[in-house]
Amino acid sequence: MDRTELHHQVRQVVDTTPVWDLHTHLYPPTFGTPMAGGGRHGADPRGLMLWGIDELLTYHYLVAEVFRVVPSRKLPYDTFWKMTKEDQADHIWQHLFVERSPVSEACRGVLTTLARLGLDPSDKNLAGYRRWFAEQDPDKHIDRVMEVSGVSRITMTNDVFDDNERERWLADGRVGSDPRFAPVLRFDPLVCDWPTAAKKMSAWGYETTEEISPRCIAEVQRFLGDWINRIGALYCAVSLPPTFRYLGPDDRQASSVIFREAILPALEERNLTMALMIGVTRGVNPRLTLAGDALEKADVMSVSRLCADFPNNRFLVTLLSRENQHELAVAARKFDNLMLFGCWWFLNNPSLIEEMTRMRMELLGLSFAPQHSDARVLEQIVYKWAHSREIIAKVLADKYADIAATGWPITEADMRRDVQLLLCDNFARFVAGE
Ligand code: FIX
Ligand code: ZN
């Protein structure tokens, strides 16, 4: 088989293997949706299920990009935020798609998504797209979008410190029972801002105080147990700043004490994985809200120390800075309780996905989870997976060609087995503790 044929065959296998999307910010309609659509769910302005053309266009990646071309000295941040969602979407469409070519990855993503949903991306008028989305029943639309993107399961991010989300779980625990969506317990303030977390938990009936006493630790464990059970968490997750350090057994920083004495023992007891997403500097430009976060390099040695000091815990790890990726891949060679995942956020660009996937495969073989979508708007899974599948297939085909050149045979069954590991089973088996 020549390289072109091999590439074609790998592409076919990658395109037809269902993905378990292991980190998203998506929700089923039970969490409410601001745009009702043609189905049985009424509009809920604070609803968490985001979908449709206006949400796609006002994705925070595109908000950051539109302020590059219409700066805040022309359209002040406050004025933009006071506009309706439709007006914001019109503004972004006009300036990023109509007045210049939409070549950035986030812009291209909107076009791929429209095209794969069967819409005509050359239609420069938003009215037609709006009509089409408004006719969709959100529940059935999820099935269609999952089918088009080849995603078999979506993993949520369920932030227990977000009142909007928390209250929905407390009102009716069945909000999370849609089998298409796996719940994940997220609790950043517990590690990043202990005083605030302690105050909130105490208001919710847990005996937590700013000073971390043994009683406090027991109460954090009770809190975690209650919420893990309530939502049926698949794993737990935090996003941490680049300044995060774990210095070992004598480290008295609040974040380290909470990890060492409360979180990790609670997760070990329940055989649950801890996901660490490290490197985000929140609110570098707070006037951009969600779009105002940036990144810096993280400390890989802290990840290694956690893996070494807690051999009975499992860590899913992704880092935000490109500069950290080589060190992290080497760390994963040292610890079997460390699973690398995804090309996170600012790394989710074709050039960087290719570089990272190639390097990871060279250092780790097939033992990593190459991508997650991080989608915030349902239909984004279409483009995020279409674009990443293309790159994963390209890298894998090159690697197969290299080993085939030695005389090692590669069958289609081998390809299917390998791609299944990359797109689903490495993650599934890791969180299952297999
Ligand atoms: O902390 C996170 O999970 C981040 O992925 C998000 O909060 C971030 O805003 C995002 O959407 C990145 O893609
Ligand atoms: Zn995320």
Concise account of the structure shown:
The chain is an alpha/beta fold. It has helices spanning 3-16, 53-57, 60-69, 77-82, 85-98, 105-116, 126-134, 138-149, 163-171, 188-192, 194-203, 214-231, 254-270, 300-309, 325-334, 350-364, 380-404, 412-432; strands spanning 19-21, 151-155, 158-159, 181-182, 185-186, 236-240, 274-278, 280-281, 294-295, 315-319, 338-340. 41% of the residues are buried.
What does this 3D model show about the protein?
- It is a single chain.
- The chain has 434 residues and is α/β, with parallel strands linked by helices.
- The protein has one domain (3-32, 149-432): Alpha-Beta Barrel (TIM Barrel), CATH 3.20.20.
- The protein has 18 helices and 11 strands.
- A 6-stranded parallel β-sheet has the order 3-5-6-7-10-11, sandwiched between helices. A 3-stranded parallel β-sheet has the order 1-2-4.
- Helix 1 runs parallel beside helix 18 (412-432), helix 6 crosses helix 17 (380-404) and helix 15 (325-334) packs parallel to helix 16 (350-364).
- The longest helix is centred in the C-terminal third of the chain and has 25 residues, at 380-404.
- The radius of gyration is 22 Å and the shape is globular.
- Residues 23, 25, 157, 374 line the site of zinc ion (ZN).
